């Protein structure tokens, strides 16, 4: 998805009242529910019927009575909605919105890896294509990854993919030696590094630190906490959904946030009295930001881009996704 495509977002439409009125009226006429991921542009988050992380949105998509799901997020998320709701029409406003993490392993690569480890249990983070999910035993989110791996008999090898930072986090917490980790990464999360985090923490000594475990800085943050450079009780490793819950609970007046910057919009709405600051304000996912006001309007006007998943692949992927939904608590994904 993300190779040599022109990734220039569709522009030319202002998110004004006329835009909001047309989007909502077209959605009503088409019996469409608008879902927006936490990393979407603020105007997309604000017009959506539901905003959340990928797991929460997957659950809503599966339970919704709407005939059409408009998934404002990246392609694997819309695919997951289609896997769970094969009879609904699922649209993503711009099908070029891929994910560098999902693209870091193909189904062929996974089949070859499985052949090297016969009998291993495959655990895939939800940021994977439908074809990779079809080769997976159980999908996980960042909040249930530890529980999922811990539930697998200790003598079984585990193949964990595709995110190496989430894999390192799970391996550290479970202490499991027979966990093999695919060396994939998200360019956005990997760009949030330890030295930057340490500097930001030193500049804001009273701030809480909210860290998403896919960030390359999660290991550094725990290390820094252990060294006393960052007070251990200030560091919170959280899924994006749990960040919103924690934002409402914290007593801190300043919170440093290490994840994609779209998350700041939800946090500021949840706790307007807190000063939320990005650890790296360049941590913006270009794929997420391809869902523009213009793309959303085009989607509703022209019925594009419709998401299709091969029926055989969907059938094989569905079990792994359903296990993830059963184990994961709402608010537990990216
Ligand atoms: S932030 Fe990274 S993992 Fe998330 S959708 Fe963008 S590229 Fe994928």
Account of the 3D structure:
The structure is a single chain. The chain has 334 residues and is an alpha/beta fold. The protein has 3 domains: 17-97 and 287-309, Rossmann fold, CATH 3.40.50.10800; 102-186, NadA-like (Rossmann fold, 3-Layer(aba) Sandwich), CATH 3.40.50; 189-278, Rossmann fold. It has helices at 17-29, 42-47, 54-63, 75-84, 107-116, 130-133, 145-150, 164-174, 187-190, 194-203, 217-227, 240-249, 263-270, 293-302, 311-327, and strands at residues 32-37, 50-52, 68-72, 89-91, 121-125, 138-140, 158-161, 179-181, 208-211, 235-237, 254-258, 275-278. Strand 7 (158-161), helix 8 and strand 8 form a beta-alpha-beta unit. Helix 3 runs parallel beside helix 4 (75-84), helix 4 packs across helix 15 (311-327) and helix 10 packs across helix 11. The longest helix has 17 residues, at 311-327. The structure holds iron/sulfur cluster. Iron/sulfur cluster (SF4) binds next to helix 9. It comes from Labedaea rhizosphaerae. Its EC number is 2.5.1.72. InterPro entries: NadA, NadA_sf.
Give the helices and strands, then pairings.
Elements: H1 17-29, E1 32-37, H2 42-47, E2 50-52, H3 54-63, E3 68-72, H4 75-84, E4 89-91, H5 107-116, E5 121-125, H6 130-133, E6 138-140, H7 145-150, E7 158-161, H8 164-174, E8 179-181, H9 187-190, H10 194-203, E9 208-211, H11 217-227, E10 235-237, H12 240-249, E11 254-258, H13 263-270, E12 275-278, H14 293-302, H15 311-327
Parallel strand pairs: 1-2, 1-3, 3-4, 5-6, 5-7, 7-8, 9-10, 9-11, 11-12
Residues 74, 99-101, 127, 186, 188-189, 260, 285, 287-288, 334 line the site of iron/sulfur cluster.
